[in-house]
Amino acid sequence: MARVAAAGSVGTVIEYYDFFIYGSAAALVFGPVYFPNFSPTAGTLAAFATFATGFLARPVGSLLFGHIGDRHGRRTVLLISVLTTGLATVFIGLLPGYATLGITAPLLLTLLRIVQGLGLGGEWSAAVLLASEHAPPGRRGLWAGFPQTGPTVGFVLANGVMLSMTATLTNEQFRAWGWRVPFLCAGALTLVGYILRSKVDETPAFLDLTARRILVRAPLAPLMRHHWRRVLLVAGAVTAAYAVNYAATTWALSQATGPLDLDPTDMLLCLMGAMAVMGVATPLAAVLGDRYGRRTLSLLGCGAMALGIVPYLAMLQTGRVGMILVGTSMILLAVITMLGVQGAYIPELFEPQLRCTGTAFAYNIGAVLGGALTPLVATRLTTTATGLPWPVAFYLLALCALSTLCFVLLPDTQAAPEPGRLAQR
Fold this sequence. Notes:
Layout: H1 2-28, H2 30-34, H3 40-72, H4 74-94, H5 98-101, H6 104-134, H7 140-168, H8 171-178, H9 180-197, H10 204-212, H11 220-257, H12 264-292, H13 294-317, H14 321-339, H15 342-348, H16 355-381, H17 390-409, H18 421-424
Helix pairs in contact: 1-3, 1-4, 1-6, 1-7, 1-9, 1-11, 3-4, 3-6, 3-16, 4-6, 4-9, 6-7, 6-16, 7-12, 7-15, 11-12, 11-13, 11-14, 11-16, 11-17, 12-13, 12-14, 13-14, 13-17, 16-17
């Protein structure tokens, strides 16, 4: 289990490192590098639009890799997905700007972002399935929680590298070449991840399906025919966590370094500190899910996010580093209370033959609804640098209400003896 957890976790670290450095670069530098003819606000919106395309590609990637996972195994998906995202990230680091390629530069940037999203669409589901299908029933939450730490570690690592660039280089140097270094570092990380994953065995659940010759030829068709309602409920359930998470990271970074005129280095330090707190809390949330039920923790997390949104935004608008650190840590703890148990909870909602497709597709639709739109919507709704951005608060509160309702309508899987058994009843 330790080897399985390490292989799943290192992949999610690498993939989310790749994904998060793009978000940081979009907030800090992509506007002037790839959209120099736009105003600062319009350039940021254009950069966030390319950021959003990665999320829009995730459901497509989830269908592609979900099919592969249900037909050819979870391990195969893990190997392909890490290469897909890693190589796309390296090519972004090599891509010339608008000054060199003209309109071709932002078009290629968008294309590479789409490839990133395709790879990430299959990554998370395969990693949590690898852990949960190897784990004993009473510890599925704990072991499936380890891949859940990957996004946090990837974020800290990505922003740590980005921070080292902003802290040691001038603004001109950073915009000229410094921002490319974190993207190029992804090549070495990808190689390490691929080697580790190549040494992991296929899951017992998939081997059992293969031995019994009950694999589904086209898993999407029966999934949508028999479980479409559950797919939509899972998607709605995870939307709020993604929205609040990316509001507190990607949008907040742009808001703090733009309208609030905070130093990028200070803001990156705040985000790294808050994400470190989130990472430490992830295993605790997973263990509590094993003990008290994953739906219970999910509902608790939704409530905590709703209660924390207005205080968080108020602390952000102060422009004070200490207040922003406290506020961001608080809201991300609420996020992980819900998100930390999803690695075990969502696979338990789908039967083994359809589990990779169902988990990946449902989860990534929620990621699009929450993660892709929030930086764009929040930027558009923010009309002034002063005062609490109430439109942003109402937008996030509405998504928390939606997710809460979806969790209420989903079943509790605490007593399920095997992942997916509940979905067969």
